[in-house]
Amino acid sequence: MTLRAGVIGCGFFAxxxxxxxxxxxxxxxxxxxxxxxxxxxxxxxxxxADAATMLANERLDFVDVITTVxxxxxxxxxxxxxxxxxxxxxxxxxxxxxxxxxxxACAAAAVPLMVHENFRWQAPLVAVRDVxxxxxxxxxxxxxxxxxxGYDIYSGQPYLRTEPRxxxxxxxVHLLDVARFYLGRVxxxxxxxxRINPEVAGEDAATITLDHESGAVSLVDVSxxxxxxxDPFPETIVRIEGTAGTVELRGGYEMRVSGxxxxxxxxxxxxVPPFGAKPWHVVQDSVLNIQRHWIDCLRTGGAPATSGADNxxxxxxxxxxxxxxxxxxxx
Amino acid sequence: MTTVLKGAVIGCGFFAxxxxxxxxxxxxxxxxxxxxxxxxxxxxAxxxxxxxxxxxxxxxxxxxxxxxxxVATTMETHERLVEKAxxxxxxxxxxxxxxxxxxxxRRILAxxxxxxxxxxxxxxxRFQAPLxxxxxxxxxxxxxxxxxxxxxxxxxxxxxxxxxxxxxxxxVLxxxIHVLDVARFLLGDVxDLYARTQRTMPGAAGEAQATMSLRHQSGAVSExxxxxxxxxxxxxxxxTLVDVEGTNGxxxxxxxxxxxxxxxxxxxxxxxxPRAPAWADPQWAMVQESVLNTQQHFADCLRSGAEFQTSxxxxxKTFALVEAAYASAASGQPVVPDR
Lengths: 331, 339
Known about the structure:
The complex is a heterodimer of chains A (331) and B (339).
Chain A: E1 3-8, H1 14-23, E2 27-33, E3 46-48, H2 51-57, E4 62-65, H3 72-81, E5 85-89, H4 96-108, E6 113-116, H5 123-133, E7 140-148, H6 167-183, E8 186-194, E9 205-212, E10 217-223, E11 237-242, E12 245-249, E13 254-259, E14 264-267, H7 281-300, H8 308-327
Parallel strand pairs in A: 1-2, 1-4, 2-3, 4-5, 5-6, 7-10
Antiparallel strand pairs in A: 7-11, 8-9, 9-10, 11-12, 12-13, 13-14
Helix pairs in contact in A: 1-7, 3-4, 4-8, 6-8
Chain B: E1 5-10, H1 16-25, E2 29-35, H2 39-49, E3 52-54, H3 57-63, E4 68-71, H4 78-87, E5 91-95, H5 102-115, E6 119-122, H6 129-138, E7 144-152, H7 157-160, H8 171-187, E8 190-198, E9 209-216, E10 221-227, E11 241-246, E12 250-254, E13 258-263, E14 266-271, H9 285-304, H10 312-331
Parallel strand pairs in B: 1-2, 1-4, 2-3, 4-5, 5-6, 7-10
Antiparallel strand pairs in B: 7-11, 8-9, 9-10, 11-12, 12-13, 13-14
């Protein structure tokens, strides 16, 4: 049986979602919804300007919420009230109370809830996870996860200029999720933020230090004002050290593993999806991967890797990062 | 002082071999004496340098008329030896760490001030060719706002210096002190510091890994990271690798003395290899050259009266970062370093 999807929010990034649904077997986009009727267009899908009307009229298996963060709670609760499963874009919520309310609403309605946290599904980052998991570098003790670039993110997403919470909310959230993915639960966090670009309202650089339950320590750092040639955007640069070796993503889609055994390099560049283009392919491929995972979960009844409940832990780190930066205290 | 300075080295152990050889190349200074409790080491140093061997510092200070003393002994002995130099009105260059704690550093500085002698710390990292070149280039990238300064190695430091396995304060005091000095050198004074330490070396009593986050007075942020337990191939030891980001460009000091200057749309590469002294061992050339540069700076400043870059007073600020790091690691909170 083909799953029927409703997409809410048809802006900049939503086209990747829509094109990915189009490519996947066993799913069809039955309806699309956007406040702007000109944007609510997709071949074969019914157009709506209002999500409540869409959910009332359509028989949907799930909705894919691709709106800005302030609208998430109302939309997720609306879907849950119709007994419809939900994928919600990141950042999931502006505070932990909203996030917990959404998780509770979906649990009460017994519908699956997944946060579209796609970094864990990026091919290079998955490859690093596999190296850690197979024990090649021993017990991890240190990590650095960085996303530093000077790519103009503001022309595609102009609202980012005025966001009071910028770098951690937009990208830090992904990196903190990756830090959890690699090194496990976080027990202590310290954060410094900086506003380098005078033309943006929020922080465009952040430096976060994490203690993990395992004893490992990691650094997570992000900057939107870093001059590099070639610009690594949108690649995440990673170094994880363990008791037996080191795994590195140094950019250019080369993964390097060395230590007790001789160094070896692996190419970890994903294919460019038919709807994609470089340099976005690593992100677009991850969208395809996470949406495929969602379909699998709906069919098998399994819990999504980045379920709403799991994402509460990542979000907790995001809010603690802001609080740490404001107070100058580790939390 | 326009005449050639006369100096002595006290402590003729592992690292002192570099000092002894470097004095042979320093312009404007000669070694008159060498001293070690171990007569065999003192004799070997005398044979190497042509200076007179002593096993007793009092005898040396009484017999020789010295302009300076180069203290290359272990940290615990520094205070006592500097007191003797002060009593004899002999200027001092002293190995790092200056003292086990900041209180000790301040006592030694007070002793030197009372005696009117000058004191410089043998803090050689900022005299390394790649870091000198990096510092020169920082002026070209606009306002620096971020740096990542890394010294991560698996080199067996305990083998050459077995006492390091016993010390409570391990990597931050032994190596972090250099890397923190580089952070000050590149981005200026530090307003607060957050540190995590890990005991990652089996058999070592102290921490072999430290991860530090610094806020500088300018508003810049830096990450200072060091470890002695990284398994990586090739191992960059003994190079410090640095990224500095400014509002107009970024500088990447990479392994093999490659300095990259990035701007939006362009990148240039500079070779910043050291010029090895004739006596250098290829693996240690950069460090050995920096020892020579450090000692030349000391001799030049003694002769000209100019301020030492790494004066005792300046180095007390670096030492305050070491103390702050240990305090932060213990409390789990950022610490404002003593000024």
